[in-house]
Amino acid sequence: MSWETVMGLEVHLQLATASKIFSGAANKFGADPNSQACAVDLGMPGMLPVLNEQAVRYAVMFGLGIDARIGKRSIFDRKNYFYPDLPKGYQVSQFFEPIVCEGVFQVPLSDGSLFPIRITRAHLEEDAGKSVHDRFPGQTGVDLNRAGTPLLEIVTEPDFRTAEQAVAYLKALHSLVTYLGISDGNMAEGSMRCDINLSLRPTGSDSYGTRTEIKNVNSFRFVEKAIAAETARQQELLEDGVSIVQETRLYDADRDETRSMRSKEVANDYRYFPEPDLLPIVLTDDYIDSVRQALPELPAAKRERFIAQYQLSDYDAALLVSSPDMAAYFEKAVTLCDEPKAIANWMLGDLSAALNKEGIPVSQSPVEPQNLAGLVARITDGTLSSKLGKQVFEALWQGEGSADQIIEARGLRQVSDTGALEKLVADVMSENQDQVAQYRAADSSKQKKLIGFFVGQIMKASKGQANPQLINKILTEALDSD
Ligand code: ADP
Ligand code: MG
Description:
The protein is 43% helix and 18% strand. The chain is α+β, with helices and mostly antiparallel strands. The protein has an 8-stranded mixed beta sheet with strand order 5-6-9-1-10-11-12-13. Strands 4-3-14 form a 3-stranded antiparallel beta sheet, with no helix packed on it. It has a two-stranded antiparallel sheet with strand order 2-15. Adenosine-5'-diphosphate (ADP) binds next to strand 1, strand 9 and strand 10.
């Protein structure tokens, strides 16, 4: 029997507002414990929340970014539960009427195609504090810096079937929110946390199985591994005739397995009711329009434009628009050297490899767009072979100046002068008389191999500077004559 995996994702996104969602305390990562929580965040008696307008704007920007319906009247609700990191005894969230309603998000897959994911809703809420288990032996500390951090919880329909789709969605989401500038999307710091709801069903079935929810997975790689581990676990149970318990689970990366946290039955009575201390959020069409007008060009539109304007493949365009900095780098380089395909190749090849190796973002690349444009210009005009281009790239990375300066300083100019090349060919032929004779007696497949040999010798003699196209031409003519 074969099984199909069904998944819906819930993402908690920290919004990059200056202050918290209902108080004036700073909303920054990494401050000393409890230095960033004011009386409102601590839930002191008599404190009243004041809604942060920027958090509302960010939520609307997100809704418009995924073409969702905006809830023109949304309300806040109290979600009641008891936990040491929640001083008020309830979390303010939006349960009954969220600010962002249904929408469809087009997710680019690695083959360049688009995969539509239905978004159920996205709502505003405040984050809780954090329990600290590793600081005081035998005791647990509570850090309330995070209490009141504005979150947008984004919920999808159960539309995912593979880990690849789930990861592609998360990457596209990450890209969208960084374009919008509403979150830094930093998964390692918890700015983007993902819950995976997962169930199995027999392939071909159209009803859903019982699901489990894997909480707070915090990297793309762990999302992939958690899905694999939980799918395997459920499949084994189902094949043994054991039914799945609906529960919350944790992914343990060290053991590469998921583990039960709590079962849903006990955890689920939140006694939601409307928050009496906050008014409904009422949005006018004018307001929504003004937010729409101010949106930057988003990844999907930029991708379409890159394909049309620069004749890039779907694949290259998707990679180049994945971050706003990458896209800006590309366009800057192309205005200086009108060779989009070559610029894209260098960026997605050598440049990305070097950035990954050093673990730095493109905004900190030691090779700036004008340097890369200068390099590509010298390859296009024949001054450099692509092999010499790689040497120049290395030198650019080391900060040895512009491409032209490096070519001068290192004497890297490609030799395209026919006279000089003819002499090189003649020299190598006379040093390798045997191979010349073999070539002239050989069939065409053997001849190809020998050409490779001669070209290798000539490139060596020219220290890599002979123009390979011209060499090929001169060499075959010389070998085929006589
Ligand atoms: P809850 O109220 O318990 O949070 P929801 O109905 O809101 O449950 O669903 C939460 C998430 O679980 C959504 O992303 C949804 O797509 C997903 N989901 C619901 N049912 C299933 C299922 N049978 N298998 C996988 N995912 C599911
Ligand atoms: Mg939920």
